[in-house]
Amino acid sequence: MKRILIIALLSLLTTSSVSIADTVEEQILDIKTREIAKTLRCAVCQTESVWESNAELARQMRQVIRERLAQGQSAEEIRNYFLSRYGDYILLEPRKSGMNWLLWVGPFVLLGIGGVLLYRTLGRWVAQTALIKPEETLPIDALHRQRIEQELRSLEK
Amino acid sequence: MIRAWHIALLLGVVGLLTLFYKGLWGDPRAIPTVLVGTPAPTFSGPEVNTGEIISLNHFSGKVVVMNFWASWCFECQQEHENLLAINRRFGSDPNFVMLGINYQDREEDARNYLKVYGNNFNHVRDLKGTISIDFGVYGVPETFVLDQQGIIRYKQVGPIIGPVYTHLTEKVIQPLLQGPLPQAL
Amino acid sequence: MFIEIGHFAVITALVLSVVGMVSPVLGLKTRNPVWVRIARQAITINFFLLSIGIASLIYSYLTHDYSVQYVAATSNSKLPIFYKVAGVWGGHEGSLLLWVWILSTFCTIAAWLHWKTQPAIMPYLLAVESLIMFGFLTLIVFLSSPFERLFPAPLDGKDLNPLLQDPAMVVHPPMLYMGYVGFSIPFAFAMAALFSGRLGEEWVKVTQRWTLFAWMCLTTGVLMGGYWAYYELGWGGYWGWDPVENASFMPWLVGTAFLHSVMVQEKRRMFKVWNLFLIILTFSLSLIGTFLVRSGVLSSVHTFATDPGRGLYILVFLAIMLTLGFGSLILRSGKLKSQIEMDSIISKESAFLFNNLFFLIAAITVFLGTLYPLLVETLQFQKVTVGPPYYNSVFMPVALGLILLMGIGPYIPWRQASPENLRRTFLIPAIIGIGSAVSLAFMGIRSLYALAGMAVVFFVLSVILLDIAKISSLWARRDQSNYLVGFYRAFTMNQRRYAGIITHLGVLVLVVGIIASTIYQTERVVLMQPGDDLQIKAYTLKFMGAQEVQGPNWVAQEGVFNVYQGSRFITQMRPQKRIYTVSQTPTTESAIYTINMGHLFLTMPEISPEGARVRALINPLILWVWYGGGIMGLGVVLNIFRLRRKEVTVSSTATLSPGPASASGGGLADETVAPHGSPHRDVALNLPPPRRKEA
Description:
heterotrimer, A: mainly alpha, 6 helices, 1% strand, B: five-stranded mixed β-sheet, two-stranded antiparallel sheet, 5 helices, elongated
């Protein structure tokens, strides 16, 4: 983490010192294109985004995104355009609607249910164990702990 | 003694295997398109051989069969003869138009391809891929049928061969040409 | 000619695998050990036969025998020799052969290694392993034979897929398969335990090293796959949540859960059914992965050449294995009543169970994400995509929970932890964790993921370090030596525990690498003309021009970039746009320069008269991902090859057991736990006995 900060600081210091002839800069259009292209699937690839893919179709799609951005369309409008042409398949992040909720909340619901079930089972086991061996509960434990703490203290001295 | 987790485990295994079995027979070509039933997006572009600009607007009121193809596509060669046959059969109908859309291709390759495999209809070059993206094309070959109102009625991913050809001609194009409000599909 | 010998050898191996399946059963029926011996010989001979099979295939590669269909499809005379050998596992058929070969190697080792010590389990073990081998050999011989001839033979081969022509690809598949196949040994032991009814702790103890070994191979395989994707695919990432990647990740997650929960069975004889379930699930997921990758059910839209016959066969085999595994578990579970003894919910036992819960949920998340498109297609006839954004928001929180548990589980005692105990162990680390997140937030880090991740990392790290400091100082004082010696003593006294801790530290390093390189990646994509500059962070890239480069089986446009830091020249980078001549496949070759364990990563996806499209990335700390992997591997190696535990001369109190756990609580695994009711039941007692220096 520190290193990143150092890098960031260095970049602040050095940008001013370099003399630049023909510096190419990313335009805002490029940055926006990237943001949108990263959320769309390259339709002909294995789970690659339009941004990452080198496929011809992906290149053309990036061009379409760029042109539509230049025309002043918003990211949402552009995504909806691709959605209307290719369907849900084109979105890398499945929409939060209908059956897709299964996907989005399923794991968390399972985690919740599993957690509660596990906690209750553990509680039952603890109760059972206590029933079987009632005579050996905390007192002995506490005694031992006391002894060990004494020994610890003697060590630390 | 049967316990709840026995049943859950069995159901899980059986369900999973069923899903896999179904998935095995799922046809990867049968991509449901969101476009069937919606108005076809309009487009224009140069004809492959003549360079004359062709626009979909020229064909309003007609049944249009659009075929996306490329010279580097093997399956396009397989279906090419059938495409020519479709145009021979319906081409005389004043309400029928057949259009090829040349996809991700070089002009000279496309011209050569048509010379070698024969040609009897017009082909529009999709220069920047915008036509393909407008039609939600994944790859080639893909074929669309538009009705007289310009609504997309049918889409086929993969070559028009065998039963697909028969279905396309008898169950899609023929009825669309006959009735003003056909029950295609 | 040679290829026919190989073909014949593999067919013979198929027959022998039937022998290996049937004869142990006969042995059990007739109570005649000769039959079991025959099965062992069959498995051993199979190893040699399959070695001949692989050797004949390698031979065909090296001699350019393009009359062999598989060789013609995946090799070429211009292919460098290195990749000619790797080409054996560059395609479906050959990689299957490698799979069975590894399986036969492991089976043979297991059969000879455990022959004397596990006579009762041996017949079942041999039968189960032979069944797995039979399943895969049938697939090879009848449906995916790499030995098919091609008439007429082509003059030259179609070349290996250019993306696979990479050093990492030479090692990655064997590692991955060693992981998958390695889990088949504990699986077979578990099945043998179920069939034979010897359901004690023995199979767990015997397979412990096998499990660790398999886990290490799988981890290495997965990380190496990531490394390959990183510099070969050229998009600057190492994990794309692709179905193929997920297929290897799922058995890893469940295998890791198994690795942890068997410790409970070893120490406390609990969770027997659960452990059997986990190992059966782990191996099943390896098989499911094989099915998903090879049947084409999850492939992209335009792969028209899927072969349902092959997929159907794997599915049938999968069904048999799942039924066998889970079926026998269900039938036997009645006999597996383990005596549950649970003294408190706040104990190491329950920490292990929560660890398992999180691992399973993590695996379910990946499973769901991978199979959801198939589910939707079957139910609703639609196609959806589940991409990285999904996993980032659903998998990551679960993973964070797992990392948090890494700082709790090993440091909470068996049976019961007192509030005092918890406070002493976790209070300071919790403060450090939260404090670090707060200060990072002040330093300008805004990503919630990064903050939560770093808080957890710092928490776990300080728990681990505080514990090491405590135990080292205890040992140092006991031996009147310095801390380093103290640490060494502590380490050797309980190597299994501290080897595990090293693996945990590796995970922390890996996590920091992932956080830094994904959240703090800087990316620039621009069109450049020769002479142009590009500024990225502190670095200036000057595009000097492009040149043509000729490789053994490719030609490339190579961009030359001078890299300056400030005005100081540091290096020259040369990304390429290659075209492999035979297959006419273009690839983008990245150029990588290492800065402070991070990378400056450069690719040139397009080059035309308009200029070169240049993609420059700074991936900070990305090497930590693989360094972390290396540390994890080191931990496992230290765990497998343990020094013999030194005898401690206990001069005084005999009640104190020799295995010193940390002062703060229980150990990770190896400390002894007294049975319920014995005088020393609290593990916190397991401290080094005070010893006076005696002349």
